[in-house]
Amino acid sequence: MTKTFQKTEQISPLQKQRAAYQPKLPSSLKQGIKNLKIVEGETTTAAENIDEIKEIFPNLFGSKVITFEPGNSSVEQKTINVGVILSGGQAPGGHNVIAGIYDALKEANPENKLIGFLGGPAGIIDADYIEIQGDYLDGFRNTGGFDIIGSGRTKLETEEQFEKTLQNCKNLNVSAVIVVGGDDSNTNAAMLAEFFRKKDEDTQVIGVPKTIDGDLKNGQIEISFGFDTATKLYSELIGNIQKDSNSAKKYWHFIKLMGRSASHIALECALKTQPNITLISEEVKEKNMSLEQIIDYMADIIAKRAEQGKNFGVALIPEGLIEFVPEMKQLISNLNDQLAECENKQEYNVMQGWDTKIAYIKGLLRNANSDLFNSLPKSIQIQLLLDRDPHGNVQVSKIDTEKLLTEMLQEKLKKMKENGEYNGKFSTQEHFFGYEGRCAAPSNFDADYCYSLGYNAFALVQFGLSGYISSVRNLTKPADEWIAGGIPLTSMMNVEKRHGKQKPVIKKALVELDAAPFRKFCENREAWAAGENYIYPGPIQYFGPAEVADITTETLQLERNF
Prior knowledge:
Elements: H1 13-19, H2 27-30, E1 36-43, H3 50-56, E2 64-70, E3 81-86, H4 94-108, E4 113-117, H5 121-125, E5 129-131, H6 134-138, H7 159-171, E6 174-181, H8 183-198, E7 204-209, H9 227-248, E8 252-257, H10 264-273, E9 277-278, H11 281-286, H12 291-307, E10 313-318, H13 321-324, H14 326-342, H15 346-349, H16 354-364, H17 367-375, H18 378-386, H19 401-418, E11 428-433, H20 444-462, E12 468-473, E13 483-488, E14 493-498, E15 501-506, H21 516-530, H22 546-549, H23 554-559
Parallel strand pairs: 3-4, 3-6, 6-7, 7-12, 8-10, 8-11, 9-10
Antiparallel strand pairs: 1-2, 2-13, 4-5, 12-13, 14-15
Helix pairs in contact: 4-20, 9-10, 10-21, 12-19, 14-17, 16-17
């Protein structure tokens, strides 16, 4: 059903100024949506499992990379309706993606309409939507959040959902759907595009790369939107804490940072702020580090600083660290299996008190897993038993990793003190920076990048493409030099086991240990551990010289050797 929304909230002076900001576009798109030509590039395959991906996507596989250049467009400017979905977690800049789509769409033909499906993919399944009008949209330009139409985590992946989506698109005369989301959402976009092609339907599907975690990228998608703003905001907070730590000189601050599947946020924030300790999950996995080895590494730094009278410091911890510790991964897998069986055992369900349940579970675990479980603080043992997802698995993201490390460090340092290996004081503060960064007002980079992604997404629609993701690259250069185009979603895919079944998914981009950003971190971390080489980035700058207000991430600059 259609709805009418009005933006009624009061705005701050900064919001008022940001509303007037006109995002920059690549030179090719600045010529106007009617003055583009398409240039075809190489034929693509898949990230991995090429034969399997080809079989799953027979109608999309093997499409070509495309680039837009200024030129005379041969496209007939028909009147069309385009639908847009915001899918998954929020990321700064989503509103500007919609603004870019809207402006390009209306520039092509003022009669065109933009349909916003409400609450994520569920909106297109249930035909819950609004028509996005200019006056309504203007209140959201250059602002954070996804509140213009809301978001959701419904997976658009079943035949029944695809049929409903197709019927609703026909009822609304929607000829193209733009899905703004992360790797799972864009995988679902590819599945939907393949479904439409198989049905000989003309409805197009285009993706837009979104996630603050930074794990949706490759050679053509240099960065996912929101990562720049979120890491700038987290780095401001880390810088403030470092300043406090160096002032009070009495606390070790342990800061967990969002990023379950990859450590891009932790690495970027480390490069921006230079803390004493940063753990990178991918390195932990590569070195097959145990929890004990991680504690030994951190305790050694803490002890060496204490020898200099420095009983303070800052440590950054990726949210998904636990899943990258091989022994913890084995323990969690063993726990998942045993707890699934326990659900059918009346004796476990009627047990009273955590001590009884913990003792019972210990007896079910394999020897090494039982020993590891026994070594964990009781609060973490309870979390491992308590928090389950709908599939009965441990919700690793809810484990207080920072608390686990501090409690284990307390025990380690106590033993070191007894052995005369440590004579310091260890007082801690714990933090988790996650939701704080998801709806921040987008940086100039994200405001420009997102607007360009949206404008470019409609250009892909205009040229009749489907199963593509909007790509804007050359991002370390001024916006005028950015390159706009698109790549096939299938080119980013591999096959992975999900919930016991082999499924096509966009391959997550993890931190590459041989790449320039991690190498720079490795070259400096020993000096950062010993000293107070802290950098205080300060708040996001929206006004001022380009080298302050428009600069992008350390990671991207190092990757592109800028």
